[in-house]
Amino acid sequence: MPEAPDTPAALDATAPSRTSRERAKARRRADLLTAAARLFAAEGFDAARLEDIGAAAGVSGPAVYRHFAGKAAVLAEILETASSGLLEGGHDAVRDLAPGAESLRALIAFHADFAVDNRDVIRVQDRDMSSLPAADRTAIARVQRRYIELWAAHLRHLHPGEDHATAVFRAQAVLGMLNSTPHSVRRTPSDRSARRQALTSMAWAAASAPLRPAAPVVA
Q1: Longest C-alpha distance within the chain, in Å?
Q2: Which residue, 107, 120, 202, 207, is the most exposed by fewest CB within 10 angstroms?
């Protein structure tokens, strides 16, 4: 059990070793999540087994249960962590920046970094979200909606003539482009770097371009 907050660690001879164990447990949990994301992305949630996840992270299948109640709990934590990290990181990226163009450029740069480094998570999100229990899907979707709303708020500053629904639509389109990385970016550092630059340029073009009415259909 963790120490009570008012217990000085220096007075507990077991504190250093317990802290070390906790750090090792956190690292192992992170390794399991990384291995699971890779396997889910490659094989699909249904096909991947807990034993395979454990083996990929260097632990036995039963040992995975020391960290997660089951495979659905692993999937939920992957997607919850990603969604919460995007929302928090997005707010951090625009903190103290002017609303509109300056903040949108920061959001694009932030999300591009996420996208090129988390191809597996994006693929899992796109394909396996439906495998989660309804309560987990609802909670994750709520966080994701708040992230989209953050983008939409700055898009409305950039395009004051557009309504909220249009800003949300544009935000989703730009994020969809940035999230194309599972199909367009290889894992090599050089390719990630080159593709990131292209993604940010295209995303800014999509975010900043005025929307023109559709041309009338000529019979």
Answers
A1: 85
A2: 202
Terminal-residue alpha carbon distance, the chain: 75
127 and 108 in a common domain: yes
Note whether 25 and 93 are same-domain residues.
no
pLDDT above 70 for 9? no
Q: Are 128 and 75 in contact (CB under 8 A)?
A: yes
Domain count, the chain: 2
> Are residues 192 and 84 part of one domain?
yes
Please check the confidence at residue 29 and state whether its pLDDT lies above 90.
no
44 shares its domain with 148: no
pLDDT given for residue 5 in this prediction: 43
Instruction: Identify the pLDDT of residue 21.
Output: 72
- Exposure string of 163-186, with b = 16+ CB inside 10 Å and e = fewer, is eeeebbbbbeebbebbbbbbeebe
User: Where does the pLDDT of residue 104 fall: very low under 50, low under 70, confident under 90, or very high at 90 and above?
Assistant: very high
